[in-house]
Amino acid sequence: MNTVIMKYDETHRDPQVMELAGRILKDGGLVAFPTETVYGLGGDALNPEASAKIYAAKGRPSDNPLIVHIADMQSLSVIAADIPDKAKALADRFWPGPLTMILPKADIVPRETTGGLDTVAVRMPSHPTAYELIRSSGIYIAAPSANVSGRPSPTLASHVEEDLSGRIDMIIDGGHADIGLESSIIDLTSEVPTILRPGYITKDMFEEVIGPVAVDPTITSDTVIPGLRPKAPGMKYRHYAPRGELTIVEGTREAVAAKINELIAQRSGEGFRTAVICSEENRGLYSCPVLVDIGSREHEESIAANLYDVLRQMDENDIEYMYTESFAGARLGTAIMNRLLKAAGHKVIRLQPQDIKA
């Protein structure tokens, strides 16, 4: 398959790009496109064969639900069988934007799109290109992240090309995705609304609108829960992972730096290619040929935006062992660490005071 790549952003708005993309989607093909979170891999959400193509292109397990992208509230009543008041309140506050809601699915949505579940994941993206694609195509677009399953999510068209060229029909190049982390997902079918995936919209932000909200234990757990059937993308399987071994080291600033330098010296001495991922503030603490500054702790948005780019840099440099600081900050820290834990396969070293060498 020849994958067409076409530029479409605020300075390049050729209507032929949208015409071609819409035609591909209506014919059951696949189009990757930018959103405000990451790039999505789109297919017709009401076409079971298109959903099957998405799973095949990504190498994605078919029990991992897809997110249906819509462009207006009228569409929500078509996709969802029931829209509770809390869903309407969240939509009023956060849509269009990086919010996905889990609701009872309408009969029109095939189980191939929902991972076999009776619920559907729905969001209304704020990115102008994503919005225009949904509007101009005239369909609802099922779209997980546009990467090979398990790999770091794509924030650039070049990331999509690297993973999916030859597997999909078209890539719309809209530049860098702004947020860099996938949407927050909240389940509104449970007695207490439950966050299934943390993102830009935090627990505190949800509770300001709808009151008490629970957090699914898989978000904060260090282990994969056996037998879990995912209600939302990213709950069960290893995700976002570079090819090498990633380890998170937690503790005081000085203890973490000392431990990482020790591990780097050990692995480098054994002949392995190594790297350190650290904050801008801590660059001077490390001794490693490959040292990647992921962003500033004072601006968590920079860490979120750079996370997947940095993980892909590890592969570009053929890194075999990489060590990262923890970035458990005040607002986006939960979302960032959720992705890092999955990328590391939950491999964490937690330093205690007795681990600090005098």
How do you describe this structure in short?
The chain has 358 residues and is an alpha/beta fold. The protein has 12 helices and 16 strands.
Structure explained in plain terms:
By secondary structure, the chain is an alpha/beta fold. It has helices at residues 15-26, 48-58, 73-79, 85-94, 111-114, 128-137, 157-164, 203-210, 217-220, 253-269, 300-316, 333-343, and strands spanning 4-7, 31-33, 40-44, 67-69, 99-104, 119-123, 141-142, 170-173, 184-187, 194-197, 214-215, 245-250, 274-278, 291-293, 321-325, 348-350. The protein folds into two domains: 4-220, DHBP synthase, CATH 3.90.870; 245-355, Rossmann fold. 33% of the residues lie in helices and 18% in strands. It has an eleven-stranded mixed β-sheet, sandwiched between helices. The chain has a five-stranded parallel β-sheet with strand order 14-13-15-12-16, sandwiched between helices. Strand 9 and strand 10 (194-197) form a beta hairpin. Helix 1 (15-26) crosses helix 6. The termini are far apart. The model has no long low-confidence stretch (mean pLDDT 93).
